[in-house]
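Give me structure tokens for this 108-residue protein.
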Amino acid sequence: MDGYLGQTKVDIKKSRFKKYTKQDWAMAYIESYGGTDGDHHKAWVLDQVARILKGTPVVLEKHKWKNGHEEMEFSTGEPSKKYLDWVVEMKDGEDGPESYGYDEGIAP
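Here you go.
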């Protein structure tokens, strides 16, 4: 769309999403992106859900255009320590701390 004015961060606590729990955000990712074709995109959805359930914050932004059109977009913020520690655990195995890979996937 032409006439893009940019985005602004939205305080989730003052939005229609104020009552969303971690589980609600996880389901929002699954519902919004889970049907996207491609293993690399499915891996991304799983990773986003893991981030959220492990305490990574969700960031909400409003995009605006000159013609009055607005869209809300959600994404994950900086990964939480709990998530980062979990990834380390997922990669650990009988051959040491890097026994297994962990695929963050690719956003659709």
